[in-house]
Amino acid sequence: MIFGTVGPLIVATTAIALLVWFSICRKRRLTPPGPRGWPLIGNMFDVPRKESWKVYLEWSNRYNSDIVSMRVAGTQFMILNSAKAIQDLLIKRSNIYSDRPHSTMIIDLMKTTWLIVFMNNNDRWKVHRHLFKREFDSPEASVVNKKHALQASRRLIGRLLSSKDHEGELRLAAVDSILSITYGITPTDFEHPFIKVTGQVNEIFADVARGTYLVDVFPFLKKLPRWLPGLQFLKIGDRGRGLARDVVVGPYNEIQAQVEKGTAVPSVASRFLSAIQDGEKMQPGEVDAMRNVLANAYLAGSDTSICVLYNFVLAMALHPEVQKKAQKSLDDVLRGDRLPNFEDFDRAPYLAATVNEIFRWHPVTPFAVYHVSTQDDVYNGYHIPKGSIIVPNAWGMLRDENLFGLDTHKFNPERFVRPDGTINYGLSAVDMAFGYGRRACPGRVIARDTVWIMAATMLAAYDIVDPVDLEGNKLTADTPLEYTNAMVSFAPPFKVSFKRRIPEGIIRDAVPDE
Question: Which residue ranges does UniProt annotate as crossing the membrane (predicted)?
Answer without folding.
Answer: 6-24
